[in-house]
Design goal:
The complex is a heterodimer. Chain A is of the alpha+beta class. Chain A contains 18 helices and 29 strands. In chain A, strand 15 and strand 16 form a beta hairpin. Chain B is α+β, with helices and mostly antiparallel strands. In chain B, a hairpin with a 6-residue loop joins strand 11 and strand 12. Chain A: Pfam families: Ald_Xan_dh_C (PF01315), MoCoBD_1 (PF02738), MoCoBD_2 (PF20256).
Chain lengths: ~750, ~350
């Protein structure tokens, strides 16, 4: 990482402070639940079903309706007309109808069966308790054993094939030292700090929704599909999102129910999930079985990689996690065989959570690779170094860039891998682990509009979001550098569906996609200004100095007054000038294998009496093309490393097999890493712009930090104790059982 | 949230002015009760708000005893006890519990009366004899990793979550109460809690109108004091198992032993059998292991929490060994072992 940790300059790459930071620390950044319309906002409370499957046969809302402050109790009997859930099929899962209160079928435990709308939250919540209902329970389908998953999903998340491979796996596995292991990972939730919240207001003509959502264009599609409203009559706003982690890619029950309430009452209605409700009313990651067979020669060459994944898929919701992606990309092998199977279950929505596929796939796969290293007595860094794939192991495509070797070398050096010291202090033993991660880079079509006014003030409009990642800041930097203007002359307007459509945030694609669209908009604006100045289009460097615009450099440089240029722009005279930019995946997107990469190192301490694991330090070495802001990038990468500790050691959403409901639905009992669990965090960035990835040279970092980080912890636990826990998370009881 | 009325108590004598204690709850820090009210698990008709009761914020001290007002916060008490070798256990336990934010709010009386963290107690769609007598116990055949192995019944296996109460149980603290009629009681904390039996909704022997006014602790727990808490993560996690131990060893013989367990009992578990077994004997690892077996002979797992029995034994043997070894090296040592 850059030695600088703060910058007054907002050029690309500078470790500049977040431009929205002061708003956030002062509480002036308004999150979804804090936006008020002129009319008073009513509050809705969700009543969830007690069982995971069945039919609602009776519901009596009369007592609830009679309570003070209650404006409406909405059930399937009086909800507005909606398109059936999941229609139309061709809209994709985030654009389809997410109808609620539309029929009597119970789809999962906690499934909303009524919305109580009242003047206050307390009134609505109390009234909901007075609703009497009967559900005729149906059979509950859950994934109880890996062999029950026998459905081949149409595709898996990321657009991959469910089954993929190369070479003759049987002969590859028959050759050399073979390892057969079965790993499991539990259900997990995103655990965003801000629970899912929406305020909707239908004024009889237009439906406006303040929501906490990562992608706006598909959110508008979703509401249009659900309520049969034209898209131009729907506006979704999400300028600040208090953490998404995949759970806010689409709209969820809060948004649909708030709209239902408002469509019925034509007043603003807010629905904020309580923390407990988030667990059932927003998506989670399904548990996984990962059966692996690996083989290697004694000199450390991988022969065969077989990875078979079994996971649940929520009924009527076609999302299958690509748990095998790490096995397909991390190393070269004579043969690779990756397979995904699912079982359709009666479960709350299963969807993306923090690096879908990569997080739990790398956790199991890189643990298994560590076992293979041990089996042939090879240093796990050297082993990984020797097996780096020179081209994509499955497709044979060249990498646009691949710095995994440097990540391993420089990471090992910075961490002190060669000089690692084993200590026993009292009952505590330390150990060290390594793992790697490869995270696919993608560009998603994005548009942006930039406007400059006669005072030299710039405004960027795009429906992109900032989910805490730093979008406001990096887009500011792109404009600041392009026109040589200070950050305070630039306003980035995000999170409004009326603005040009962007990728939104997710899949590590947001920065490069929206950033390139903004860069292209800047170039288009510069070209238009050059044209107005009577210069050849597009070749000049265009720099602003207040209201003066300088074109070109050196001898041919000329300066124009901005107001005069704008006067040239049209009749009548304009006081501002706008230009659009967009980006789409180009041919390099398909021609090259584009990945960012990571090497993770960890030291842990294990109490040999109690089995408690504490992380002493984590070091990550990352390569993700050009870094747009070393501060926000570093924060994201460190955040990912923290999640690595979290899912390796703590996170476990327990599902009661009797009724399919989740058991530990609060942050006291759903454990993720807290401050005290995190040791020393350090990172190095090996920076090499990748212009095949995008014009900015950047690649995705959002999910890079988490990819592989957990396995380094798990491998360190083994190193310390000789105990290999294959059923994550690695809790004290499981370690103790092996001591 | 169910509508409720509020009575503001300024002094304990105000108890007599409260019209009725039916469906009434005392509100102190609110870190547990308010959550439970939001979740509609506790649905009182009346709250007796203690925030104006100034007298209960005091800690008083004599040569032999400290008396802690019911509203002394966990942070204040931890700070006070930290400087008292005979109360070291209490400080260690308090600081191992919850988070700074919670400890700043939570009170001494409230901490003692906090409810279990059983998942099924918190989920109002599930059977729970503690929340709804006669409805059954979903934890028995459900997820019971955090549940109790000592003092349970076929009606309830919920564990008591308090670290503070575990330390107070080891230190043989006394709970001072007063009721609406002005009657005062001094109840040993070891007798405060009732076992679940077939009435798990009854958790203490306190009457509905009986207010905890203070907790007193005699300065008698001699020797080295250790509170070891085993938990899933390093902060903001309840104990899987915990051991509170004060041990005084003279000439290799255990002269004085105070022992209690957290995370494993339906109430803060006074390990009386183990204490009796250890007292007066020569401090050896074999003895510690036998003492653990004596105390744990009645322990019963429910599947998910079976691991607590070996985990408690390992932790107990380790803690006893550490205390004994420290006592032997430093015969007059009082209080915590400070490493580093």
């Amino acid at each position: 990482m850059s030695a600088k940790t703060y910058s007054d300059s907002y050029n690309i790459g500078d470790p500049a402070n977040r431009v929205d930071g002061h708003l956030k620390v002062q509480g002036k950044a308004r999150y979804a639940g804090e936006n008020l319309f002129d009319a008073p906002t009513l509050v809705g409370w969700i009543l969830g079903a007690k069982v995971a499957s069945g039919t609602l046969t009776q519901i009596d809302t009369s007592k609830a309706q009679a309570q003070e402050g209650v404006q409406a109790v909405i059930t399937y009997q009086n909800s507005p007309d909606q398109t059936p859930f999941g229609q139309p099929e061709d809209m994709g899962r985030f654009g389809q109808s997410r109808a609620m209160l539309n029929d009597t079928r119970i789809r999962y435990a906690g499934f909303p069966i009524a919305l109580v709308v009242a003047d206050t939250l307390e009134q609505a919540r109390y009234a909901a308790r007075l609703i009497d209902y009967t559900i005729e329970p149906g059979p509950i389908s859950l994934l109880r054993a890996p062999e029950e998953a026998d459905v081949v999903p149409e595709d898996i998340d990321g657009g991959y094939e469910a089954d993929a491979g190369t070479g003759d796996i049987d002969s590859a596995l028959a050759n050399g030292t073979r390892l057969d292991v079965h790993y499991t990972t539990p259900n997990q939730v995103s655990a965003a700090m801000e629970p899912h919240t929406s305020i909707a207001y239908y004024d009889g003509d237009t439906l406006t929704v303040h929501s906490s959502v990562q992608v706006l264009a598909s959110a508008v599609d979703c509401l249009s599909s659900t309520f049969n409203l034209p898209a131009e009559k729907i506006r979704v706003k999400s300028p600040y999102v208090g953490g998404g982690f995949g759970s806010k890619l689409g709209l969820h029950n809060d948004a649909i129910l708030a709209c239902i309430g408002s469509l019925l009452l034509q007043r603003p209605v807010k629905v904020a999930m309580s923390r407990r409700q988030v667990f059932h009313n927003a998506p989670h990651r399904g548990m996984s079985h990962q059966q692996m067979a690996l083989s290697a020669s004694d000199d450390g060459a991988i022969h065969g990689v077989q990875h078979h994944s079994s996971m649940p898929m929520a009924k009527d919701y076609a999302f299958a996690e690509g748990t095998g992606v790490a096995a397909r990309i991390n190393y070269k092998a004579n043969a690779i065989d990756s397979q995904h199977r699912v079982k359709v279950v009666d479960s709350p929505m299963i969807d993306s959570v923090r690096a879908p596929g990569d997080a739990i796939g790398s956790l199991a796969f890189e643990s298994a690779v560590d076992e293979l290293c041990r089996a042939i007595n090879m240093d796990p860094v050297t082993f990984r170094r020797n097996n780096i794939a020179p081209v994509h192991p499955l497709t044979g495509a060249d990498f646009s860039t691949n710095n995994l070797d440097r990540c391993l070398d420089e990471g090992a050096k910075a961490f002190g891998w060669e000089d690692r010291q084993y200590r026993q202090s009292g009952t505590k033993k330390n150990g060290f682990g390594v793992s790697v991660g490869m995270r696919m880079n993608i560009i998603v079509p994005s548009q942006a509009k930039i406007t400059v006014d006669s005072k030299g003030q710039f405004t960027v409009h795009t429906d992109m979001t900032d989910i805490g990642t730093g979008t406001y800041t990096i887009l500011t930097q792109i404009v600041a550098q392009h026109f040589g203007v200070p950050a305070h002359c630039i306003t980035i307007d995000l999170g409004d569906s009326d603005s040009p459509a962007s990728s939104g945030s997710g899949g590590s694609f947001g920065a490069s996609s929206s950033g390139t669209a903004v860069l292209n908009a800047c170039e288009a604006l510069a070209a238009r200004l050059s044209e107005l100045a009577g210069l050849a289009q597009g070749n000049e460097l265009v720099q602003f100095d207040g209201e003066q615009v300088r074109f070109g450099e050196g001898d041919t440089q000329q300066t124009h007054n901005l107001s005069e240029l704008l006067r040239n722009a049209g009749e009548p005279a304009q006081d501002s000038l706008s230009a659009q930019g967009e980006v789409k995946p180009d041919e390099d997107h398909d021609k090259y294998a584009q990945y960012s990469c990571a090497a993770h190192f960890a030291e842990v301490s294990v109490d040999t009496v109690t089995g408690e694991v504490r992380v002493i330090r984590q070091h990550g070495a990352f390569s993700a093309g050009r870094i747009l802001n070393h501060k926000t990038a570093g924060s994201q990468l460190k955040g990912g490393m923290v999640w690595g500790t979290s899912y390796a050691l703590f996170e476990d959403l327990q599902q009661d097999p009797r009724d399919g409901s989740f058991v530990n639905c609060d942050f006291a009992e759903y454990h993720f890493a807290v401050n005290r669990d995190i040791g020393e965090l350090s990172l190095d960035i090996i920076e090499e712009p990748d212009y095949k990835a995008c014009k900015l040279g950047s690649k995705g970092i959002g999910e890079l930090g988490i990819t592989g980080s957990g396995a380094a912890i798990a491998n360190a636990v083994f190193d310390a104790t000789g105990v290999r826990v294959r059923d994550f998370p690695i809790t004290p009881d499981k370690v103790m059982a092996g001591l | 949230m169910k509508p409720f009325s509020v009575f503001s108590l300024q002094d304990k004598q105000d108890l007599s002015k409260v019209a009725s204690f039916e469906h009434s709850r005392f509100l102190a820090g609110g870190t547990n009760l308010v959550d439970l009210m939001k979740h509609q698990i506790e649905e009182p008709d009346q709250i007796v708000d203690l925030s104006g009761w100034q007298e209960a914020h005091q800690i008083s001290e004599s040569d032999h005893k400290v008396t802690i007002g019911a509203l002394v916060t966990n942070t204040e008490l931890a700070d006070f006890a930290y400087r008292q070798p005979t109360l070291s256990l209490l400080s260690q336990a308090l600081l191992a519990g919850a988070t700074v934010q919670l400890r700043n709010r939570a009170t001494t009386g409230g901490n003692l009366l906090q409810r279990t963290r059983c998942y099924y107690f918190y989920d109002t769609t599930k059977a729970c004899n503690k929340r709804e007598p006669g409805s059954g116990c979903a934890a028995l055949d459900g997820f019971n990793r955090i549940h109790a192995v000592l003092g349970t019944s076929e009606h309830c296996i919920a564990s008591h979550p308090s670290d503070m109460a575990t330390a107070m149980t080891a230190l043989d603290a006394t709970v001072h109460t007063m009721n609406a009629a002005g009657e005062v009681r001094h109840i040993p904390v070891r007798e405060l809690y009732t076992l679940p039996g077939d009435t798990p909704h009854i958790e203490t022997q306190l009457g509905a109108d009986e207010l905890i006014t203070a907790v007193s602790i005699n300065k008698t727990a001699r020797g080295t004091q250790i509170y070891q808490k085993v938990r899933d993560r390093s902060s903001y996690a309840f104990a899987l198992v915990s051991v509170a131990c004060a041990m005084h060893v003279k000439d290799g013989i255990i002269e004085n032993i105070n022992l209690a367990f957290g995370g494993v009992g339906s109430r803060p578990w006074h390990a009386k059998s183990a204490e009796d077994y250890l007292r007066g004997k020569s401090a050896t690892e074999a003895l510690f292991s036998q003492a653990a077996d004596v105390e744990l002979s009645a322990a019963k797992g429910s599947g998910g929490n079976d691991f607590k029995i070996p985990m408690l034994k390992r932790t107990l043997v380790h803690v006893l060994g550490q205390a004994a070894s420290h006592q032997q090296q430093h015969p007059d040592h009082e209080g915590a072992i400070h490493v580093r």
